[in-house]
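Form P-L/3: holo structure prediction, ligand heme C.
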Amino acid sequence: MAEKMVRLLCILSALGFLIHHQAVVAEEDSALSLGRSIYEHGIGRDGREVNATLHGNLILKGTAMACINCHGENGRGGRESFIRAADIRWANLSKPYASRNMGGAELPYDQESFAKGVRAGISASGRKLDPAMPRFDLADDEILSLIEYLSRIDLTSHSDGSRFSILGLLPQPGSNVLADALASELKNCPAREDGAPIAAVNIVYFDSPSDAILKLEKQLAKNPNALVLAPFLVGWEGQYAEAVRRLNPQTVLPFSLLDAPVGSNWKFYFPGLQAQILALIKLIKQEGYSYLRIQYDSGNELSTQLNEFSRKIASLHQIKVLNGVSPTKKTQQERIRSAWLWLKPVVMEKIENVSELDELMLIPALYFPSRNLETGAQLLNRRIAYPYKPTDNSGIWRVPASIWGKAACEFLLRVGEKSINPQDLPEVLRLEEGFFLYKQPTLDLSSEQVFVYKSLTPDVQ
Ligand code: HEC
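OUTPUT (holo model):
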């Protein structure tokens, strides 16, 4: 009786496969559909049933041993009863140091080691896989087609709207040092000791912003639920925001200098320049200053826009912006109670020409980029605003790619561990003690996240 049921189920599922197969065959190349067929139905080249050896001697065929039964519809594996099958999406298997299973980091798979894993049950690191993972009699082309399928499983698995994939958006390797560093962070998220799974990110490389938008549109057409993680938006935030207005994917931890554009769907972003300026202005207000002078570069669009923004914010906080007042004409009172806001790079030689070194300088870290300035600028009275805590707990300086990478990996871990839906992201992403990001902060809240330092030696204000 039970056997009959199983048989019936097999036949039904085979029929289901045929119908489904007809529907999708047109849009998939043959490698992809062969891979899918093996993965979902245990049916290999020319309709043959794949043979699998389980626990050394039990030979099973076809559907009963299809990968999907254990590794799940989306390839992410799972923990059904006592079997714990790995996340075998190719992005995850081929990722250096990914934690695919309990026990921490393992070597990445390539084509050869994948074949060995599937045929002989030996992992890329040379570990004997649990006997619950069957050994399959797959031919080389079948192996290749499986890899093809596993590379795209996030995008090809039946989209019932509830699953989602995570896309990275980065310039072609070699075109931007910062972006390369970020890519390397994203690909090498450290495994956690308890082996909690890390969600895989599918990085899409672009040549130009318009190429990026085209590719993003293509991916989103296939998977409307895709979430965009740490896209590299420096310099084309506006273009991205424009594209996003139509497509509206959630954009987590955008790598950007600016705050979220109005109406955008950005999540967990580090305070941008606007939030940093707001933080600095709030600070001098608190300290009793009442005048501000702004150093900006009228030939630079960003600098000019920030100048306008700063004027608005200053007036909202009853700080008067002094225009081109020459130092000698200022009253003593104005001298004492005025600060400079720098919206262009601070260059020591230029400052030395200025007589008011005693005036407070307010500098978003972007404009105070080099620590070499430290010697010359020691005497300056200044406040530097950072979008993140600039040193780690042992006082080591962080670079942007590492902090963005850390946050992105934390996000991948949270998502991987709890299989979170894009709709249920947590309210706060905690990075370390006293350092966290809100899901969707207002500019005001974001300004509270800014770290203002007096000098480059950590002495948090
Ligand atoms: C009966 C359940 C089952 C089936 C069916 C199955 N697997 Fe597995 N698979 C597992 C388990 C359990 C593990 C974890 C083994 C371990 O880590 O020791 C695993 C591990 C793997 C690994 C190694 C991952 C790593 O982290 O090293 C690969 C690759 C893999 N499976 C591919 C496949 C493919 C491809 C198919 C289909 C052709 C398949 N599996 C079918 C249960 C299964």
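COMMENT: The chain is about 40% helix and 15% strand.
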